[in-house]
């Protein structure tokens, strides 16, 4: 048993919270900030019409596989019908000679670039907005990914390139940064992180996964780089009214809070308590290169995770339009 403190002791009984802010039945959390005005604000940041898709490829077979939280598996895609099907005795015959191919897939909903449902993590038996954690049993009844998917996520995105800011291709294992570093990087990039921005943060960690091409080395002493918990950082997210945090890491924050060893406290502080939606495993490198080339770090961000009823999350291919 670890001697790390309980989540409630680390975050505090009076941790910053948005529970109740959007009513007792809310399942969207800080995405409520993204209203029609925010869509129009995002559109004003489209200047050149370039588009960048931010999902990693699912089920790549030419490298290390897909980057995953330990214990998860990448997509298992299976041919059900292909040209071979139509050779056999008793193959279906369609008027006109139509042939077609079908696949099935077994996927972890968190097994690729994804939106987490607000109910995806919890502590002390309560999810986002105070919903009972037992409502997750068998199927996520409250704060599933479905309301997020029904809404869609559209607004002004801003990219903070922490790896570039620190002069690296990718951050080191366990390397941390906080809101003051985000502000410093933004200032160096010549961009301001504005209220209601969809905050995209690049660490280079996806690039590291593919370039290293060695899952054993990647998972040895598994500790992703990322944002690290402090009460001030959580307060900053609440004050900035950040609706959505998007990163190129598997879990959006340094895996273990360095002082206490608590695993993923920002999942709890931001997602469970503030209703900030988390998007993980994003491919931000091509977007970052384009932003660095002309010094424009803001864009229209559009994402529509799959409408999985009762889903704990859903794969997504967000698009940044600049
Ligand atoms: C966990 O919460 C364990 O994983 P993630 O949010 O990265 O999918």
Shape: globular
Task: Give a quick account of the main beta sheet: strands, pairing sense, barrel closure.
Answer: 9 strands, mixed
Q: Architecture of the largest domain in CATH?
A: 3-Layer(bba) Sandwich
Helix content: 10-25%
Q: How many domains, in number, for the residues?
A: 2
CATH superfamily of the largest domain: Putative cyclase
CATH topology label of the largest domain: Glucose Oxidase, domain 1
Alpha-beta content class: alpha/beta
Q: CATH class of the largest domain, anyone?
A: Alpha Beta
Low-confidence runs (pLDDT<50, min 5 residues)?
none
Question: Order of strands across the biggest sheet?
Answer: 1-13-11-5-7-9-10-4-12
Strand portion: 15-25%
Number of helices: 10
If you compute it from the alpha carbons, what radius of gyration comes out, rounded to the nearest whole angstrom? 21 Å
Mean pLDDT: 97
Which cofactor or ligand species appear?
A: acetylphosphate
Gap between N and C termini: 48 Å
Secondary-structure element order, N to C = HHEEEEHEHEHEHHEHEHEHEEE
Q: How many strands?
A: 13
InterPro entries: KFase/CYL
Pfam family, one: Cyclase
Protein name: Cyclase family protein
Structure described in brief:
This protein is an alpha/beta fold.
Structure in words:
The chain is built from 10 helices and 13 strands. With 322 residues, the chain is an alpha/beta fold. The chain folds into 2 domains: 7-67 and 108-321, Glucose Oxidase, domain 1 (3-Layer(bba) Sandwich); 76-106, no CATH class. The structure holds acetylphosphate (UVW). Acetylphosphate (UVW) binds next to loops.
């Amino acid at each position: 048993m670890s001697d790390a403190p309980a989540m409630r002791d680390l975050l505090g009984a009076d941790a910053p919270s948005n529970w109740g802010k959007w009513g007792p039945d809310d399942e969207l959390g800080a995405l409520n900030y993204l209203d029609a005005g925010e869509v129009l604000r995002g559109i004003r940041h489209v200047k050149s019409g370039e588009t960048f898709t931010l999902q990693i490829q699912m089920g790549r077979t030419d490298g290390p596989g897909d980057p995953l939280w330990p214990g998860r598996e990448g997509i298992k895609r299976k041919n059900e019908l292909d040209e071979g099907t139509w050779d056999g005795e008793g193959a279906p015959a369609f008027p006109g000679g139509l042939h077609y191919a079908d696949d099935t897939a077994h996927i972890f909903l968190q097994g690729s670039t994804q939106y987490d449902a607000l109910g995806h993590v919890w502590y002390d038996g309560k999810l986002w907005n105070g919903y009972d954690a037992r409502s997750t049993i068998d199927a996520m009844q409250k704060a599933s990914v479905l309301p997020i998917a029904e809404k869609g996520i559209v607004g002004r995105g801003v990219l903070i390139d922490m790896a570039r800011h620190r002069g690296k291709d990718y951050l080191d294992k366990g390397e941390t940064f906080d809101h003051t570093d985000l502000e410093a990087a933004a200032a160096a990039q010549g961009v301001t992180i504005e209220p209601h921005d969809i905050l995209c943060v690049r660490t280079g960690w996806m690039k590291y996964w593919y370039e290293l091409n060695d899952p054993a080395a990647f998972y040895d002493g598994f500790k992703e780089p990322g944002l690290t918990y402090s009460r001030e950082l959580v307060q900053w997210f609440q004050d900035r009214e950040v609706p959505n945090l998007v990163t190129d890491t598997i879990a959006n924050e340094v895996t273990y809070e360095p002082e206490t060893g608590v695993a993923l406290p920002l999942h709890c502080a931001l997602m469970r308590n503030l209703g900030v939606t988390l998007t993980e495993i994003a491919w931000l490198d091509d977007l970052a290169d384009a932003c660095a080339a002309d010094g424009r770090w803001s864009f229209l961000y559009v994402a529509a995770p799959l409408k999985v009823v009762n889903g704990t999350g859903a794969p997504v291919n967000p698009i940044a339009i600049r």
